[in-house]
Every structure is written in structure tokens, then in C-alpha cells.
Design a protein that fits this description.
Layout: E1 12-13, E2 41-42, E3 50-51, E4 56-57, H1 61-76, H2 86-89, H3 95-128, H4 133-149, H5 151-161, H6 163-183, H7 189-217, H8 222-250, H9 262-280, H10 289-301, H11 304-331, E5 337-338, H12 340-356, H13 358-363, H14 370-390, H15 395-423, H16 429-454, H17 459-486
Helix pairs in contact: 1-12, 3-7, 3-8, 3-9, 4-7, 4-16, 5-6, 5-7, 5-16, 6-7, 6-9, 7-16, 8-12, 8-15, 11-15, 11-16, 11-17, 12-15, 14-15, 14-17
Length: 495
């Protein structure tokens, strides 16, 4: 239904690229058979496209219905002491807050669609233009290296020049790539990879940092921020599913004749977003480099609690990237045809469901400390990846495990954002997030080189590293909780 690949003489297992990490989404096959070619025929022209001639495994439709109904019930029955979605739709709230929240969430949805558009459409486009496997691997290496060496500094740059400007840069990068693709029949995939990798790095910290800064400037309660965190995770996943639908609707068999392609749609969304950002919001003058460096040393580098929080964030980013690298080859490893385009919405739906659990744990009848929630979520997600790494499972079991993993991630992301709000000053938030992602980007780059070029590391080993990272993140959250008992954190925001 959603996959751009249409019928053909050979059955196709459609793999969707990673919306979480733009620079990583090609197929790494690790067959459990002594002769992988006896069961799997790789189509090198598509980084995650697999051609399989075998029996068909169909996705369980009740699973999709269950996830949808669970999300709906979880939202409608949120705890009464939570402000729920009323932070966005309650007319009794101050007009300044309502206007900001609604405009921001709409802009965030547009940005999420732009992020997801290339994830769904990118591999199909590269296959259409006949990009070779070597070129794809090289472009992914370049993109990952850009996220590490250039993306790491973008967070600190946003703190210095302003969050609004860095979000404008995100839109400009997408607009540049979209226009470049419309003007040239064979665009530079290296240039596109670098630009989109930098845009993805900005997406990971830019909008959250801007939202928190503006929210705090308006002088509103921390409870409202908590609601915005899970709403952002929820709407991001919904927008990624929407981008999949839009991309498939826009793509035709004759790509060159299709004037209203996903690139055009991305350009239109980017222009609308740029105009909205430029006209609507103003921000305070940027900080000086000297003052920023002093604050960074005082509040970030000298605080072991920030190190624990940063390592946990890095482990999450690495494990999510590992998942989106390897979920497709793991599922199709037994040689059966699988419509991965139908599984993709289920995974994001599970993430949406996990995000709706956040207010239940924070404001529900049995509220838990945020660190405790994260410990449980990290342990469960680590166990899931450990099962996948230990031995091959039947496809249905794998889909269930992957959904459980994403449900945990959906709970983890707003929880980590809440802890950053408690521990990290606004003026340092972007730099803290981008610095915490550097170890993850370095590990991702290393895995790409070792697996993509030399083949010296197996898929199961990479997944095991992701599981170990999640277990270590659980340990970090336990230590963070223990440190809070002896030296309570300083809340930099209003209650």
C-alpha cells in the first residue's frame, strides 16, 4: 500500500530508510545460511531494496488496528491531573501560549514530513538514477562523517547565534537539496548526503531547544513543557507515516515526467516553513563566545550528572541508528517476501503509543521518578535487542519485538527531554545535545566502515553493541537517581 515499488516479475521486500538518522539506511546482509546467495538476491541499485523469490509473509492486520486503538484510548483517557492536549486546545490558557504552541507544532510537523520524505523516497530515487553500490556506501560514509565532524558543532552554534536561525538553516538545507534535484537530472549524491545529514543533526536538537527557550520566555509552567515533549514525539511519528503516504502518492513510474515530485513537495514545505519562522518569532540577542565557554565549562563539563545524561542520550541514538540499519535484512533473512512498507507504520505507531505512556508515568495515579521510568525502558529495549542479536527469530516474533523496542523509545525520548529541562540551562541546551550525540555518530561511522567496506563485523555484533549501550544507559539513569539524593538538581525552569 505505502511502498513506492510496484509490481514486477520478481517479488520485492521493500525497506524504508531511517527517519531517525538520515545518513544511515542501506542494507547490510548477514545471512544465517552458509550460502546467502542461495536464498537472497541483492539489488545493488537500491540501498535497502531486496529481491526475493519465495513464499510471502503478510503483516498481521490486527496488530495495526490494536496499535491505533491503543494510541486513541491512551490519549483520550490520560490521567485527570495531567493537562493533556489542553495545552494546545484549551481556550482558557493565555493566548500567547496557545498561539505559540499551535504554530510551533504545525511547523514541527512540516519539518518532520521533510525529514521523512527523503527517507522514504531517497533510495528509490538513487536506484532510478542508477547509483552504484560503491557510490552509495561512499555517500553514506561522507554523510555520517559530516554528522560527526560538522553536526557536533551545530548545537553550540545554535546557542551562540540563536535557535531560530539554526531552524532556518534546517529548512534552507532541505530547500537547497530539493531545488538541486529539480534542476539537475543527476544531482551530486555526496552533496545531498552532507546537506541532509547536517539537516538531520539540526532536527535532533534545534526544534526542541527553540521550543523550550520560547516556552520559558513566556513564563509558563514546567508541566506544559512535559506535554509538549510527548506531543512532539507523537506528532513526529505521525508525520513520518504521513510522509510515507505522500511520497508514494507523488511518485510515478516516469519520475522525470512527474513535475510534482517529492522534491517539489519538500521545496514547498521548506518555503512555507522559512516564511513562518522569519515572520512569526523573535529571539533575544546571542551570547558572547567568552561567556558561553565559561557557562559550558561550569554547567556541562564539570557536572558528572550531565555526563550521565549525555551518555544515555548517545546510547539511545546509536541503538536507534543500529535498528534502522539492520531491521530490514534481519526480517528478510529467511528468504521470504515481506512488505516492509506495511511494517514501517506499525513501528512508528508503537513509538506513538510509547509517547502517550509518558504522562501516565509522570502524572498518573502511580507516578514514578523519571529516572526509574528510563531504567525500566532501557532494560526492556536492551533485552529486545539482545534477543535479536542472540539468534534469528520468526518474522512475526521479530515484528513484535521491534514494536516493543519502539514503544520503549517513544517513552524514552520525552523522558530524556524532561531531564534535560531539569538539569541543563536553556542557553546551553543545544550544545549539550549535539555534544552528547558525538559518541553515537562516531560509533555509527565506525560500524559503516567496518561492515560496509571490510565486512569485518557481523550484524549480530552491531546489534549486541546497541543492546550493551542501552544497558549502560540504564546504569547511568540509576546513578543519576542516586546522585540526586545526595545533591538535588538545580531546576533552571519555572514550576
Amino acid at each position: 500500500m505505502f511502498a513506492p515499488f510496484r509490481g514486477g516479475k520478481k517479488s520485492r521486500a521493500r525497506a524504508i530508510g531511517s527517519p531517525e538518522n538520515r545518513s544511515i539506511y542501506y542494507l547490510l546482509v548477514d545471512s544465517h545460511d552458509s550460502d546467502p546467495k542461495s536464498r537472497i538476491d541483492l539489488h545493488i541499485s537500491s540501498p535497502m531494496g531486496v529481491v526475493i523469490e519465495s513464499e510471502v509473509w503478510e503483516n498481521n492486520q490486527p496488530l495495526s488496528i490494536f496499535i491505533f486503538v491503543s494510541c486513541l484510548l491512551s490519549v483520550l483517557c490520560l490521567p485527570h491531573n495531567s493537562s493533556r492536549i489542553s495545552t494546545v486546545f484549551d481556550q482558557l490558557l493565555p493566548s500567547s501560549l496557545l498561539r505559540f504552541q499551535r504554530n510551533f507544532l504545525l511547523l514541527f510537523c512540516f519539518s518532520s514530513v521533510m525529514e521523512g520524505m527523503w527517507s522514504v523516497f531517497g533510495e528509490y530515487e538513487m536506484a532510478y538514477f542508477g547509483v552504484s553500490k560503491e557510490q552509495m556506501v561512499s555517500s553514506l560514509i561522507i554523510g555520517s562523517a559530516s554528522a560527526l565532524f560538522l553536526g557536533t558543532g551545530l548545537g553550540m552554534l545554535s546557542d551562540l547565534i540563536g535557535r531560530k536561525k539554526i531552524c532556518l538553516m534546517f529548512c534552507v538545507l532541505h530547500l537547497f537539496v530539493a531545488i538541486w534535484k529539480r534542476l539537475f537530472s543527476h544531482p551530486s549524491i555526496w552533496l545531498a548526503s552532507v546537506s541532509l545529514s547536517l539537516a538531520s543533526s539540526i532536527f535532533l536538537f534545534g526544534f526542541e531547544t527553540w521550543m523550550v527557550t520560547e516556552h520559558d520566555k513566556l513564563g509558563h509552567r514546567l508541566d506544559s513543557l512535559n506535554e509538549m515533549f510527548w506531543l512532539m514525539t507523537f506528532l513526529e511519528s505521525a508525520s513520518l507515516i504521513g510522509s510515507q503516504v505522500v511520497a508514494n502518492w507523488l511518485v510515478s513510474n516516469e519520475l522525470k515526467k512527474n513535475m510534482f515530485s517529492p522534491s517539489t513537495a519538500t521545496a514547498l514545505l521548506a518555503v512555507v516553513s522559512i516564511v513562518s519562522i522569519a515572520r512569526e518569532w523573535r529571539e533575544s540577542p546571542p551570547a558572547s563566545i567568552k561567556d558561553y565557554r565559561i557557562s559550558l565549562n561550569t554547567h556541562i563539563f564539570s557536572d558528572k550528572r550531565i555526563w550521565l545524561l549525555g551518555w544515555a542520550q548517545s546510547c539511545v541514538q546509536f541503538s536507534v541508528a543500529v535498528f534502522w540499519i539492520l531491521w530490514a535484512p534481519t526480517i528478510v533473512a529467511d528468504g521470504r517476501e515481506v512488505n516492509l512498507g506495511m511494517i514501517y507504520p506499525c513501528l512508528l505507531g508503537a513509538k506513538m503509543l510509547g509517547s502517550t505512556a509518558f504522562p501516565w508515568f509522570i502524572n498518573g495515579p502511580l507516578p514514578l521518578r523519571t529516572e526509574d521510568c528510563l531504567v525500566y525502558a532501557f532494560v526492556i529495549a536492551g533485552i529486545v535487542l539482545s534477543i535479536v542479536a542472540y539468534d534469528y527469530q520468526e518474522i512475526g516474533i521479530l515484528v513484535g519485538l521491534f514494536c516493543l523496542f519502539h514503544a520503549c523509545i517513544g517513552l524514552v525520548l520525552p523522558s530524556l527531554a524532561r531531564l534535560r529541562t531539569l538539569y541543563v540551562p536553556n542557553e546551553l541546551r543545544g550544545g549539550m545535545i549535539s555534544l552528547s550525540l558525538a559518541p553515537a555518530n562516531a560509533a555509527i561511522l565506525l560500524c559503516l566502515i567496518l561492515r560496509g567496506y571490510s565486512g569485518s563485523i557481523e550484524n549480530s555484533t552491531i546489534i549486541a553493541f546497541g543492546a550493551i549501550g542501552l544497558f549502560s544507559a540504564a546504569g547511568c539513569m540509576h546513578l543519576l537517581k542516586q546522585s540526586g539524593k545526595h545533591s538535588p538538581h538545580q531546576n533552571f525552569h519555572k514550576h
